[in-house]
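Hey, can you fold this one?
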Amino acid sequence: AERIPKPKEVKADEPWVHVDLSAQTLVLYVGDKPRYATLVSSGLADHATPPGSFRIQRKFVSDTMSDIGADAADDRYSIDDVPWTQYFEGSLALHGAFWHAHFGLRRSHGCVNLAPADARYVFRHTEPFVPAGWHGISSQKTGIRGSLVLITE
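Sure. Predicted structure:
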């Protein structure tokens, strides 16, 4: 993982995440200081993780993730209890993946997969913070600002 400059919209003490698709890495920063780095698995070519600047919108300690509709064809899946799920764009999320150990290689349906321990660390250090005893939180339609997720090629 290589250090990058803090985006202008990020405050000096604000946590944010950089996902480098070409290196398959994630770095958690606070302001301009890198705090944690790990390998990830982003989307396969036919389910590419989109580059861009996003904000974490919803966080859940665990969530069911699925694509079982008619459009899913042979790519259907349904996984219960996906740990440390942080949605940043629609159904795309940073989350733990207990079903594989191929981090550093593209493997997902567009999400950013992390090893469960890494996902837990990132979850606990990004905003919005989930209060003790709560299962999840949403920053949508509130004054709460979720952490920036910057995804680059």
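The longest strand covers residues 77-89. Let me know if you want another pass with a different chain boundary.
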